[in-house]
Amino acid sequence: MSHVRDLQIDTGCPDTRALVEHVTSKWGVLVLLALDHRTLRWSELKREIAGVSEKMLIQTLQTLEADRLVRRDALPVVPPHVEYSLTDDGHRAVELLAPLVQWAQHQVRS
Amino acid sequence: MSHVRDLQIDTGCPDTRALVEHVTSKWGVLVLLALDHRTLRWSELKREIAGVSEKMLIQTLQTLEADRLVRRDALPVVPPHVEYSLTDDGHRAVELLAPLVQWAQHQVRS
DNA sequence: TGGGGTACCCACCTCGAGGTGGGTACCCTG
DNA sequence: CAGGGTACCCACCTCGAGGTGGGTACCCCA
C-alpha cells in the first residue's frame, strides 16, 4: 500500500501529464533506453530503433530535448554530424521508467 | 547508469507496449491512484476523478480489469452496486508508477 | 406519477498522433 | 557526374483515442 494520495500526486496537471506521456510514449521509451546505453548519432538512432519513421524520431528527440532529458550536440562540420545523449534528468527518467517496463514485460509473459 | 539493455528490455513487444500505455494513460493513472487508496464504487470513481466521461471511465476500468490490475465486484442487488478495487498486481503497478509521476511533477515545477 | 440515482451500452463525430513521401544543401566516392 | 550518405523540413492523409449525447431497466422518494 503506497497511499500515493498522501504524497500529493495530482496527474490532473497538464504539464505533468505531458511529461509522463513523452517518456512513456512508444518512441520516447525506445529513444531513452537506447541513449541510456550510450551516445548515438541521429542515423545510428534511426538504425538502432527499428521501424521508426524519420518524422517521429525527429519529433521525439525534439520534445525530449525540450524536456531537458536529451542533449543535442551538432558539430559544425559538413556533412552534418549530430550527437544525442541523455542529460542527468534523462538518466533519472530511465531509472524510474525501466522498472515499469520490466514489470510490464514480465506481466505479459505470465 | 542503469544499462537497461543488459536487462533485456524490449519495448518493441506490442503486448508490453499496450500494458505500459494502459497504466500510463491519462485516465488509467487516475483510476489506479484513486483505487490504490481504497475500494470505490463506479459512481464514486466518477465523482472522484473530475472531468472523466462515462465512456472513458468504463473503458479504462474494463481494460485494467482485463489486465488483471483492477478487480470488479458486482453485488447482485437492485439498484446495481459495483465495487472496484486493485489486485496485488494493480498495487504493484502503482508502486512503480507513482515514483515516475512524482518525478514528472517535480520536474515541471522547476 | 415523475424526477433522480445506479451502472452501464451504443452511435456518431472530432481532432490530433503518427505515417508516407517528397524536397533540401552539402559532401565524398566511383 | 551520378549516386549515396548526413540531418533534417514540409504537406498530405489516415485512423483511432476520446468526447458527446442518447437509451436501458430497475428502484426509491416526494
From TrEMBL, chains A, B:
DNA-binding as UniProt keyword: yes
One Pfam family per UniProt: HxlR
Protein name: HTH hxlR-type domain-containing protein
Domain HTH hxlR-type span(s) in chain numbering: 13-110
Keywords attached to this entry: DNA-binding, Transcription, Transcription regulation
UniProt cross-references to InterPro entries, sorted A to Z: HTH_HxlR, WH-like_DNA-bd_sf, WH_DNA-bd_sf
